[in-house]
Amino acid sequence: GAGVSQSPSNKVTEKGKDVELRCDPISGHTALYWYRQRLGQGLEFLIYFQGNSAPDKSGLPSDRFSAERTGESVSTLTIQRTQQEDSAVYLCASSPYRQSQETQYFGPGTRLLVL
Amino acid sequence: SQQGEEDPQALSIQEGENATMNCSYKTSINNLQWYRQNSGRGLVHLILIRSNEREKHSGRLRVTLDTSKKSSSLLITASRAADTASYFCATGSGAGSYQLTFGKGTKLSVIP
After folding, report:
1. Interior CA angle at B52 toward B50 and B54, to 5°?
2. How far is the alpha carbon of A18 from chain B, nearest alpha carbon, in Å?
3. A103 and B42: CB-CB below 8 Å?
4. Do B101 and A105 touch (CB under 8 A)?
5. Which ranges of chain B have pLDDT less than 50?
6. Which tens digit of pLDDT belongs to each residue from A49-59?
7. What is the distance between the alpha carbons of residues B64 and A114, in angstroms, rounded to a whole number?
8. CA atoms B62, B59, B31, A103: torsion sign
9. How far apart are CA A38 and CA A9, in angstroms?
10. In DSSP terms, which residues pair with A89 in a beta bridge?
């Protein structure tokens, strides 16, 4: 079946502009995660959605970052007033598991470059 | 904070050789997973080992877990050029928690 998809694949923007990144999880997956990966680094947790529960936003680095998810479907990550330090690959993952830290299924990521 | 730390940071081997990567972590875990990432894109899940397991196999992959040393190793046997990628360990810990904590990865290069 279809995997996790993300759009756009690449995004180049100017400092100060807003960007919106999209994630389509695997159908039926209740859990959805956003991560940031800077060049040569590991994954940095940003936000977690589980069904209709309140999201865990504890990883968002500043109030310029926000994310939404409609039910158990599409999620968007918005970065306002982008800075050069926001340049990174933004990865989305989904999982069918509720209770434990089981396998996550990743999308191909969006590579963001802020000039 | 970083939970898993992979070692080495980079590894270069000839095709056909075995590759071993290590992961150390700091707190008690529920499970430990290994993921592969090609060219800085999405991660692919390779294998999951639970805290009560010591060894697990999947094809050419062998994972060991030593909870007393808080470490794990990933062995890829008979490596191929297509195995060239970055490999990350991720740990799940805490009751009722849903987060995985990823290390910085080992960059493996397999030379044909």
Report:
1. 85
2. 23
3. no
4. no
5. 1-2
6. 988 888 889 89
7. 41
8. positive
9. 16
10. A37, A111
